[in-house]
Amino acid sequence: MSTAKKTIALSLVVCMMFISSACGGGGNPAGSNSEEVTYTWKMGTIYNDPASRPDYNSFGLSMKKFVELVNEKSEGRIVIEPYYNSILGASQELFEQLRRGELEVFYGQPMANVDSRFGAWSIPYLFSDYDAVTKAIASPDAPLFKLSQEWVRENNAELIAVGPSVFRGFFNVKHPVATVQDLRDLKVRIYEDPIVNLFWKDICNATSMPYSEVYTGLQTKTIDGLEFADTSVVSSKYYELGNYFTDINWQWTSGGNIIIGKKFWDQLPEDLKEIVRECAWEAMEYQGIEEKKNKESAYSTLRECGVEIYELSDEERQGWIDYARSLDSRIREAIGPETYDAVVEAVKLAK
């Protein structure tokens, strides 16, 4: 072979090696040198931006914490862009985007009208307090967390962590509420969920209404009250319109779920997956700390604003629990007997 031909052949080999190297080390997450890949994700939620509403906003603050932790601990290899205030859509729409692979991260509550099994998180009086929540679902090895992960995986996503979230009481503008019977004359706003509807529809005039319309609804007397967390009553300033809150704590709301779309989760190398898990659980622990701190001050704030807080006696609370348990067969049918039985067993196992 002539010198000229050898030179051309060598040049072609070098060129092919360069192209092969460039293709293998670029933006392909499966590449062998994952440190060269930067993952930029969008994270959507309905919760308020803590930059504009820092008080009584444990969900918004914990999302901000998660975003910051991931960026810091991944050393910039994962960059998460937060979108608050339903900018990318309401909860159901966000979860649907996640399932279709159009959104990387969702922070919120997957709704039962997407998958009936998610209604299990709405079972009335499933938990008595935050300690029970932590043991059953808000920790990495909790039995109900593991079960919930299975449901989410079947929806093309990965449940990374669950926070302590909140318990929901009852607020209204007409009169004190101590028993289930006290609701008979009230028009009550509920959120769209089969289990929520089951609980409220027979004991009051229940109507589904978007959260964004609640303040005006109370103002115009379209509704008399709503089931809501005490901290949220403060942050939404409903105390400007009504005077009565009761700590019925009828439902633990699974609002603190960090969920990542399957195709985006699968792209991550194992070291980054571990970082994301660690950051998610740290952020959810922070959510619980903030919520408990907020709850302590919420009662003081409500009282200062003229709201009468009715704290149930043990006997009165048992009356609410007995009513909830009378619905168990209907709830079991709504979410599926197999799912219901598995959830009850998981909660028992955690005690």
Describe, in plain words, how this protein is organized in 3D.
This protein is an alpha/beta fold and 351 residues long. The protein has a single domain, classed as Bacterial extracellular solute-binding protein, family 7 (D-Maltodextrin-Binding Protein, domain 2, 3-Layer(aba) Sandwich). The protein has 13 helices and eleven strands. It has a six-stranded mixed β-sheet with strand order 7-6-8-5-9-11, with helices on both faces. Helix 2 (58-73) links the parallel strand 1 and strand 2. The longest helix is centred in the last third of the chain and has 35 residues, at 270-304. The chain starts with a helix and ends with a helix.
**DSSP helical segment count:** 13
Work out the helicity level.
Answer: 40-55%
CATH architecture: 3-Layer(aba) Sandwich
Proportion of β residues? 15-25%
Topology pattern, helix = H, strand = E: HEHEHEHHEEEHEHEHEEHHEHHH
Supply the helix-strand structural class: alpha/beta
Main β-sheet: number of strands, strand sense, barrel status? 6 strands, mixed
CATH superfamily (homologous) name: Bacterial extracellular solute-binding protein, family 7
Low-confidence stretches: 1-28, 30-34
Distance between the termini: 81 Å
Mean pLDDT: 91
Please compute the radius of gyration using only Cα atoms.
24 Å
In CATH's first tier, which class applies? Alpha Beta
Q: From the 3D structure, determine the CATH topology.
A: D-Maltodextrin-Binding Protein, domain 2
Please give the number of β-strands.
11
Sum up the overall morphology in one term: globular
Spatial order of strands in the largest sheet: 7-6-8-5-9-11
